[in-house]
Amino acid sequence: MHPALWLITIALVLAAAAMWLWQRAAGRVRQDLSAAFANQQIQDRQRSSAVVAGPQDVVVRRFQTEALRYFFLRAGIQDPSSKLYLKLIFPGVVLIVVAGLFGGFFSALGTFLLYVLLLNFHFWLKTSKLQRTMVRQLPGFLDTLVRLVTIGNSIGSAFQTAIVSVDGPLRLVLDRANRQVQAGVDLEHALSREALIFRFKELELVATVIGVAGRFGGRSDQVLDRMGAFMRDLAHSRQELSALSAEIRLSAWIMGLMPIGIGIFLVIFNNNMFVGMWNDPIGQKMLIGAVILQIVGGFWLYRLAKTM
Fold first, then answer.
1. At a CB cut-off of 8 Å and minimum separation 6, what does 84 contact?
2. Tens digit of pLDDT for each residue in 123-177?
3. Would the pLDDT of 63 be above 70?
4. Which of 11, 77, 117, 185 has the smallest CB count inside 10 Å?
């Protein structure tokens, strides 16, 4: 194929990827703007607690971004310290230096990519596990909330009382929402903002029900009771679907990650072959085509694994 056609193909693929990333970035910006006020009071508390913290932790908090804080929050880490960053960065730096000394620049680059990929996969597993735990805990919290509302408590007071009966990752989300309520934020808005931060759609649905009940009245306890029963049935159906599609999802993950792993392995341990292919015109075209096919195939396999 003529080199110009390759360039046009790569340009079209990059343009499509840029449009997709732009749409996702626009959605993330809207979420971050709606969640910024939710964390204002929490940040004030963190600034006050930073006075008694060590100087290294103060520097770490200063250079943390909102996206990074939310990333660690979704993984169950409330206040990442300098020790955590050292534990994450130091092994990677050692591995990259060793790979660079023994294998050269491409080995160091492949080691860096592999380490970043493994770190992201580790935190993705932690985040997924915590989200599944929160989904399992939410119906029990709704049952306690319904009982307190039934005996005459308001939704606000019942919410604050029911938090005591919750443990685990759901307690973190509810405590953050409760601190915002105590600072003067409506319960509906506090729950909605925390649902956006933690990407917890079920909690956003609960916030919607509470907001509708607060504005228009009605038997919110009955709606929440039925919602809890529906969430239990939905979780049971998801478990059955997950068990039935385990083989398909595992195959999708293997097919999506194995080419990436093999390619990085070859770059780390035999980068002379990679450099030789890149310097050869036909080999260069094969590498570019393999990258394009891997991006497209990995995207569809990821969608397949997520929908199962």
1. 77
2. 888 888 888 888 888 888 888 888 888 888 788 888 888 888 888 888 888 888 8
3. no
4. 11
Residue at 246: amino acid letter: A
Residue among 231, 252, 240 at smallest CA distance from 305:
252
In the Cβ-directed half-sphere of 56, how many Cα atoms lie within 13 Å? 7
Token look-up 């049971």 returns 236
**Distance (Å, whole) CA 185 – CA 246:** 42
How many Cα neighbours within 13 Å face the side chain of 217?
A: 0
- Euclidean distance between CA atoms 64 and 61, whole angstroms: 5
pTM of the model: 0.64
The model's pLDDT over 128-137, given as tens digits with 9 standing for 90+, comes to 888 888 888 8
